[in-house]
Structures are given as structure tokens and as C-alpha cells.
Amino acid sequence: VRTNAAVDEARAVVAEMVGGMTEIRREAKEVADAITRLNADVQQVSRIAQVIKQVADRSDLLALNAALEGTKAGKVGRGFSVVAAEMRKLAENVAQSARDIGRIVESVQASGDVAVVRAKESVDSSDRGVQVAERAQSSFQQIQELSRGTKEAAQQIAGECAAVGGAGAQVVDRADRRASAFGGRVDQRRG
Question: Which of 34, 6, 13 lies closest to 137 in space, CA to CA?
Fold first, then answer.
């Protein structure tokens, strides 16, 4: 009875563990999915940063051409040359910022890729843990069945021993009676 109770308790603990690991698996999958979506958004930011860099590069080239044209125009174009030079500085700053954004995006993507791999590994580990726990639960079931079989065999042996003991007592009783009867005959012959 105590063995069955212990096995039942162990099976309940294993079932709780399976439930917990299943929850961990679900949460790890949700994290992996969220990071995958984040990576898609980061890739979109990367594409936008590329467009901004292209516009900045083009603006820089246009500002350089405008500055040259302003210089050709002489005194009249001097103001135009100053504005073109400022536009060129602005374009260079925008291009540098776009490159910085690109580096940050690459870093975030790399970290996100690692996080997705780790989350998938967690899902796989959880799956393996659930499989081990399910095998343990099956083993506990077998132990419980074997325990029941052992108990039934012990009860059967006890019953057979009681029957043998009863038969043995009958044999001893008969032997005593025969010995008494035989002893009485011996006494009669002596006398």
C-alpha cells in the first residue's frame, strides 16, 4: 500500500514536471517568434537606413556640383556656394548617421539570431525533458503494476503456507494419535 502511494506521488510529481516543461517550451517558442518578428522589423529599418544613405550620398554629390557652379558664377554665386557647402556637410552627417544605424541594425540582428537559436535550443531541451519525464512516468506505472503483482503473489504464498501449515498440523495430529495408539499397544504387551 505504501509503495503504491509513493509511486502515485512520484507520478504526480513527474506529471507536474511535464506540465512545467511544456509551459517553458511554449514560452521559449513565443520568445523565438517575437525575436523573429523583431528581426524582420530591424531588417526593415536597415532597408530604410540604406535608402537614407543613398539619398545622403546623392545629396552630397548634388551639393558638390552646386558649389562648383556657384564658384563658376563668381561673386554672384558666392551665396549659393555657401548654401551648397552647408548642404554637403548635412549630407555627410546624414550618411554617417545612416552608416551608424546600419552597424546598430547588424548588431541587433546578430543578437536576435543568437537569441532565436538559444530559444529553439530551449524548446528542444524542453522536448527532451518531457520525453524523459514521460518515460519516468511509464516506469513508475510499471513499478506499480509489478508491486501489485508481487503483493498478490505474496498473498497467494501466504495462503498456501497457511494451507500447508494446516495440513502439517493434521499430519502431526495423526502422528500423535498413531503414536499414542501404538504406545498403548506397547504398554499392553509389556504388561
Answer: 13
